[in-house]
Amino acid sequence: MRRKRPNPVPRFYRWRTNLIQTPVLSVVTGIYGSLALLVSIFDKSGRMQHRIAQSWARACVWISGSHVTVRGAERLRMHPVAVYAANHTSYMDTPVVFSSLPFQFRILAKKELWPIAFIGWYLNRSGQIPIDVANPHASLSSLSFGVKALRVGMPLFVFPEGGRTLTGELQPFLSGAAYLAIRAQVPLVPIALEGVYDLLPIHTHHFYPSELTLSVGEPIETKGMTVRQTEELTARLRAAIAEMLEPESANSFASSQETPLHADA
Question: Which of 88, 145, 214, 219 is the most exposed place for a label (fewest CB within 10 A)?
Answer without folding.
Answer: 145
